Amino acid sequence: MTSNHSGLPSIRGSFRPGPHNLPQRADRILHRGDHLFRTGDSLNRAYLVVAGILKSYILHEDGSEQILDFPLPGDVVGVDALVGQPAGCLVMALDTSSVCELTLPEADDANGSERANAALALQGMYQAVQRLHVRLHMASATTEQRLARYLLDFANAQGLRGCSSRQFRLPMRRRDLACYLGLATETLSRTIARLQQQGLLEIDSYEVTLLDEAGLRRVASISPVVDGNTTHRCNRR
Amino acid sequence: MTSNHSGLPSIRGSFRPGPHNLPQRADRILHRGDHLFRTGDSLNRAYLVVAGILKSYILHEDGSEQILDFPLPGDVVGVDALVGQPAGCLVMALDTSSVCELTLPEADDANGSERANAALALQGMYQAVQRLHVRLHMASATTEQRLARYLLDFANAQGLRGCSSRQFRLPMRRRDLACYLGLATETLSRTIARLQQQGLLEIDSYEVTLLDEAGLRRVASISPVVDGNTTHRCNRR
DNA sequence: CGGTGCGTTGAATACGCTCAATGCGGGTGG
DNA sequence: CCACCCGCATTGAGCGTATTCAACGCACCG
What we know:
The structure is a homodimer.
Chain A: E1 27-30, E2 35-37, E3 46-51, E4 54-59, E5 65-69, E6 76-77, E7 90-93, E8 97-102, H1 113-139, H2 143-160, E9 167-169, H3 174-181, H4 185-197, E10 201-204, E11 207-210, H5 213-220
Antiparallel strand pairs in A: 1-8, 2-7, 3-6, 3-8, 4-5, 4-7, 9-11, 10-11
Chain A binds a DNA duplex through residues 142-143, 173-175, 183-190, 192-193, 205, 235-237.
């Protein structure tokens, strides 16, 4: 994997396929402001960006938008199609652009477990993307929101596992959780204390009890919704 | 797609496969602190978490760690294997856990463009994950670092497209870029001004000229590395 | 010519971070 | 068995940075 200045894998540039090994067909031209698809659209193909620049984003209930990416040539959008999911975001052209349809082989010649495994793996990767989108959203949120959201999600997962979703044990150290939530451990400590003072939960060392789930949900949700003005907001609070 | 309190897709719970439709084999038990794999390991399979809880993270040069996720049962780790890449992170058990190997069908019965398309799509999704990891990393960075990194990456992409990587046109509005970088537009404005005052670049409306790429890289990189003390750090600055 | 959208600049605030000290528990060694 | 130490969590005080609120400049357009 190529490396760049930031010590992390370069955002772009790997896997850039030359146009030669592409099935050259079904190119589609988009003009500035055109949408390739919108949230909820049922996709039956993904798209490879060939030229131009796009913007993929999510609209929140309050009208604010969260930008996910600015896809450039070589990038693929609409990966939801790969796992049969409807589009999870909007994709718009910021400039005249062209995309190439990626039609996928049908998984009809199923040969049992191997194919099941492949599907599982694909879904796993898809899930990873979804989860990262959620965390991206978390990045622009209050500390209280981050913690409340994480606890609610963890509780939910516990419930799915058949365990109590009201009382459980946090399996990681404060330091790790703080790091995950993008906080200093001290801030996490204080935030826990604040939520406890509000009577929303109780944490004894690593044992968590959710006392007021509705209240937690209230804290977790994007609070203000300022007012109905047109100014669209991306930011926290 | 299921929805939760935060208005975004629920982190977990979709695609949770019952153990019944799984090829029940090759389960592996991990104990607290055991590593499933480490950065750079060559993987020839992905893993489905069956029980317990893991921690996936990246180690930075300065010894600090960035936690990517706490994979729970139903999650898949090691997706790098799907595209033939070495592991991009470390995965450790936080508690006694078990994982199931996901061996994948060989792509040997290649039938031309369709399979090429599938591979491309898979790589696209993989790239999306990588890119999101980078953005996650961005979340814990100074405004200057975020802007510098974005500009350098964009310039790099321009270069790959055969255009000038020194002088180009930003295709998005300030508001969008600010939203993407997780900043207020005013802050973005001020940060641009600051970088200009430092003589690193010049921005006239949407026309960008990078004057001192080395300087930009310096700004972009994780600056302090405080000192060589043992206390591991996750946080910005 | 007035309106509107967008970008910039200024002043005040607030939030989370850093540094530092204290508390607590579990492990080890005397 | 107890003392000590080390890691981790918590709490407090001060500070820095980005946000918010507000005003202004500018270009585009009816």
